Amino acid sequence: MIRKALPFAAALVLALLPLGTQSTYLHHVMVLWMLYALLALSLNVIIGYLGELSFGHAAFFGLGAYASAILTMQTGVPVWLALIAAGLVAGLFGFVIGYVSLRIVGPQFAILTLGFGSIIYTVTNYWDDLTRGPMGINNIPPVTVPGVGPLGEARDYYFVVVACVLAFAYACHALMRSRTGRAFLAVRENAPLAASLGIDVFRTKLLGFVAATVVAGIAGGLYAHYLRVITPELMSLQYMAALIIMVVVGGRGTVVGPILGALIYVVLLEVLRAFGPLRLIVFAALLTGSVIFVPHGLVSLWRPWRRRADPAIRPEPAP
Amino acid sequence: MFRTTLLASGMALALLAAGPAVAQDKPPVKIAAIVPQSGAGAFDGQLALEGMQAEAALVNAAGGILGGRKIELVVYDDKGTPEEGVSAARRAMEQDKVDMIVGGWFSAVALSMKEVTRDKIISVMTSSQHPDVTAKGHKFLFRLNATSNMMSSKYGQEICARIKPKSVAFITINDDFGRLEVDNYTKLLGACNVEIKGNEFYNRNDTDFTVALTKLKSLNPDAIYVSAINTSQGATIYRQARQAGFRGTLIASAGNMNPKLIELAGPALEGVYSISLYAPDSDNAKLKAWTEQYGKTFKNQPAFIGTLGAQAVQVLAAAADKAGTANDPDKIAAALRSQTWPTLLGEIKFEENGQALQNLYLIRVEGGKIVSIK
Amino acid sequence: MDWTLLGQQLANGVVNGMNYVLISTGLTLVFGVLRVINFAHGEFYMLGAFLTYFAMSALGIGYLPAVLLATVAVGALGILVNRLFFWPLRKEHEFTVLLSSLGLALLVTHGAELGFGHDPKYLNSPFTDDILEVGTIVLTQQRVLIFAAAVLVLAATYAAIRWTTFGRMMRATAQNPEGAALTGVDIRFVHTITFVLACGLAGLAGALVGPVAMIFPTVGSWAVLKGFIVVILGGLGSVPGALVGGLTLGVVEALAGGYVSLGFMEAIGYAIIILVLLWRPQGLFGSVAR
Asked: Which of C99, C67, C87 is nearest to C195 (CA)?
């Protein structure tokens, strides 16, 4: 009973979190957490469910951000429509790139995505007329909710983004309990075996990859309209490394893990400000320590009871 | 959480009681120093911060401002990126409640940070050169460095009059700064009949320039104009230009000459001209006091970017004193606009849009030192 | 067509390619034996450059002895790195090992920022500014040195893997760790020596390539990316693959930078890799199955 109620209680707490403080800066940190959580959840579909490593995910995030910003600023499309378009643009690129790359697995797939991501980054950096180049785009209009008007406060954004996170988290959860979800896991664990069972491995992977890129694109759009400034650095490897850290440190292949990983990443860097110049060293040491001592992610600390509850979490065999 | 807070405040109280000098009852004036502390701009950020710290130490040693309040610098890392700059500015304003902000070392950061601080808090932008920082600024925004347009119109004349190349090729960074430089000098040098042979853009994370320099050398220009903000990229370009066998004149972009660059680039930089607001051989008394203080605390050679940080602290301290407040942006902004300020870089005056008017010196590297050419 | 320019750019490309070869040989060795991409590889490149710098300034020794010292020191560091960061995770999923190496990379970079300072440094080699003119082609002596050292080191590594007892142990471990262990190969020893070799090679690369540009604590992230690309292009685990991959990337980049645009140099390099991988997913010299 408690086990069933817990996710709902957690979701409720998450949804009402900003009411607990008056600090607008803490609200800002919370919005960043949720944006990263959304991104990490989407990358988790590729890393955790498909078992492939993508170094190009930040590029889809950036594509969404640029698509949405450019659409609203140059054509006057309302923001909510632009956000959908952001997901579609990122998903379209995801489809083409996934279609080309997904027959290839392992490190070669990782480098293919790195290559495509890098090309998208370079084009963004040099297509000055459209993207304003390395200076980035400023003064992106805020999200406007029909009937409410433009969102001004970080707290209002939080409610929008947390709704997206909860919806996507639930979708992931439901997916992993469905037939398609079981196909994902079968493909991850043993692709030839999955194929012999009649699962179309390529189509399954492509489905997961496109879904992940669509969500990354929407997250990018939300990011653009929240921070109101974007630069090509969004697509850079620093962001990519941060995302991988969130997913793996939190716990890949779980729903809670990436959200937790994003929280750790955002909050830890804030808290560690107290360390001054040692901040990033302490961060790296904690990161490395957690990987070595908790290799299945922080979520695995709860695993004794989680394992029975969620079929998606299963310890993987060593390679 | 509550217990930790209690413990911390208890310890703080104990410390206060134990310390002999409890005369510090006046709250400090908090100035946010938003500088790049990691990433490619980290060294420039360090120089800038050191300049600010040396000047704050001078002001505090002389009794502080507003009748004995000390200046406290609250430092934030913007990583040289607009996104982080925006977050840092928000934290400074909303969480740490600073009185004033100094930042904007890179144009991209300044352009986005000004939207967060718009009409809310006194913001002094420092080394960024993009015209839009002040052209589309706000009523509390001030910028110290000359815009790249102001620099290039002066430098253009000097290049035509003194260096007199017959032809020139550019190697420039791919951003607004680099693009603007190419546009400006193509016009300005074209006007005095210098033939423009070509331009190569590089990226801000490139480390090797041999291929581009080989290409430029094959165009046979009289001079190569090097536009580099980043010290390590600049030093590499000057050295590799010589290593690629280019024997013509090298011209350094305005505002980017510093002692570290000379140390790293070595003989490749000897005799090279540039433009700067900072002439190390000036006999300004404020500059001498700052240079001495800087030398006492820091290992680095004082650099232009450090003097700009110091100048920011200097004018803010003076303006707050004149306005009689540290946190009323309307009064401080009015004070800043009201008069000409004597600073370590000479006299400075702010235009209505917040742009500073300062002296520009033609400088040259001679015997490994920066000297100003009269 | 300007043949002098073409010749010069080809020469630039071949020499840059040899840099890449030096960097990626160690990376490919580690992959061959451990089946992981070591993201901290670039940091040993950075350490090689910095140790050479400090050996010269603190001990007052010349450039070449300093290079030797730095190579040995970084190689020795490989023992520690394997023991602390890789050996304990040998049974874990590859993503875990990958993240451990990423953490190590961050740790070393930020440690270096604190320890060595943010300021860029110039590694003063006596060969950097001296120009060697062969016909119409201009190269610095340093670049010729890099080329020669790379050829030598690569030949030695290849011979060691091919013809020594250790090389046989290494190849056996690469093909089948359990089987190798059963036949009496000390797996742990093989891992250790592989890391010593890989780190030493990266350190040597840093010490030799360092003087060509400036050195700073984050220079390693550049190196590991190039290494990664070359290793995948050439075929994971293959030393000849690293040679051909490195030279190909160097020449392609030089021609792209010289005739298209420096800004698009990297993107064109990536485009070539994508095409190669789509044609031969295992890379130029990779084997199809393990």
From this structure: C87
Instruction: Return d(Cα B146, Cα B133) in angstroms, integer.
Output: 11
Cβ of A119 within 8 Å of Cβ of C93? The answer is no
Query: Which residues does C115 contact at the CB level (< 8 Å), separation at least 6?
Result: none
Domain that holds residue C8: 3-279
A144 part of contact set with chain C, CB < 8 Å: no
Task: Choose the closest CB to C99 out of A116, A245, A278.
Answer: A245
Whether B333 contacts B138, CB under 8 Å: no
Residue C165's CATH number = 1.10.3470
pLDDT at B338: 92
**Residue among A283, A136, C86 at smallest CA distance from B111:** A136
Cβ of B182 under 8 Å from any chain C Cβ?
Answer: no
pLDDT attached to residue B4? 43
Sole residue written with tokens 């407040």:
B325
CB neighbours of residue A6 within 10 Å = 12
A75: exposed, middle or buried (C-beta count within 10 Å: 0-12, 13-18, 19+)? exposed
Structural domains of chain C, count: 1
Domains detected in chain B:
26-146+283-357 (3.40.50.2300), 149-276 (3.40.50.2300)
Is residue C12 within 8 Å of residue C265, measured between CB atoms?
Answer: no
**Mean pLDDT, chain A, whole residue set:** 86
- Per domain, the residue ranges of chain A are 25-236
- The amino acid at C226: K
Q: What is the pLDDT of residues B302-338, one digit of tens each?
A: 999 999 999 999 999 999 999 999 989 999 999 999 9
Dist CA B55 CA B70 (whole Å): 12
Q: Would the CB atoms of B203 and C263 count as touching at under 8 Å?
A: yes
Residues in chain B closer than 8 A to C120 (CB atoms): 43, 231-232, 235, 260, 264
Residue C243 lies in a domain: yes
| Residue B5: other Cβ atoms inside 10 A | 9
